[in-house]
Amino acid sequence: MSLRLTQIVLLLQFALAGFSIADEPSVFPYGSVPREKPDMPLSAAMSRVYEGTYTGLDCVHNELFSRFKYTPLKGFDYHNHDGTVSRRDATKIIRVNGKYYVWYTKRDTPTPPDYDGGANDTIPSRDWDLSEIWYATSEDGFTWQEQGVAIKRMKKPLAGWRSVSTPDILFWKGKYYLYYQAYLFMPGSRESSGTNGDDCPVSASVADSPDGPWTPSNKIVVDNGPPGSWDQYVIHDPYALVRNGKIHLYYKGEMGGEPLPVRAQGLAIADHPFGPFTKHPLNPVINSGHETSLFPFQTGVAALVSRHGLEHNTIQYSPDGVNFEIAAITGLMPIAPGAYVPDAFTDTQNGRGITWGLCHFRNLKRDEGKSHSMLARFDCDLSLDVHDIEMKETDIFNDPEINFKFGLSEEQRKRIEASARNPQP
Ligand code: AAL
């Protein structure tokens, strides 16, 4: 382009810009941050604030942004944390007759898990091996009374004879249903050739009251996918919501991956709690995460996505419960969260969100050979009815010891020091 032509183009651009100043902003405004997309050219970063599923630029006005705060629970005994008692993988919490109810995996074994192949009929292979589903109630969500066992291990050879773990609760047409992982093999083992180590399908039990007694369906209600499908080995973390008059059961699957497994979440839908469940043709519907945790939100469904994958540490929203988008990015998320979800089973089109639940801390004292997990409480503001500014603060101050705990491995340190001594040109 000749100099002249360039000058004419520039002049034209200035003229156009000058023209737009009169009618619309040409710089991004200071002050109250626009809630709607300003009518001006935006960078990719600013465009996605307004065009994606974010509800605006500031976290304060994003109903699906929250930080998480943690409180130890009162009322559970862990045998002085010697590794013989573990509680983990809490269900969503429900409130019945003025009391909160939660179910969880409880392991009470003579020894802590033996991760090195020494497991047998009484020594667990993993924290969730040789486990049962227990339950507890609470009036305030901080102090809990353990009530006893809800689901015992099944009789061999039924699914769940080795262990029953990782439950979730459903209330449907006047009855309560517990879904759980029903192990036929020792978790972590490859007893049956071609298994993946933590294989299990999902089974379920029913009761007229949250206090039981529970009658097992004695059948697999959500089975592993056929060979070659992403969920062929693992159907973990069943999680039930009622939507459009049906039971929507989300679950985690593991789809191979080398050297680390890739995890994703699927959806299976049924008219009856014991199935048959039809897996959604678009599965997996969430591309990341580990333990499932979802709740009705406005007309759709929101999900806490933590621990693994491209989109870990996000809170996602889907208008149809199938097509999820990132609504917020957060940190220090609860592990295996089971939230209090008052409208989980009301088939609502006006989901109100969540503010608290139980989660677990895992691998406690594993270095001392006493590995176990402990339940704890988390609080957040993912509710349309609460406006807690303290939960909208993104900056987290960590004790340096926490970060140093995640320091370099010896191998990394050697590699990095060697390359510092002999840097590549
Ligand atoms: C959990 C869950 C499932 C896995 C194991 C126990 O937190 O994802 O339940 O099998 O870890």
TrEMBL record:
InterPro entries: GH43_arabinanases, Glyco_hydro_beta-prop_sf
Molecular function per GO: hydrolase activity
UniProt entry keywords in alphabetical sequence: Hydrolase, Signal
The keyword Plastid is assigned to this record: no
Superkingdom classification of source: Bacteria
Signal peptide feature range: 1-22
Record's protein name: Glycoside hydrolase
Organism of origin: Aporhodopirellula aestuarii
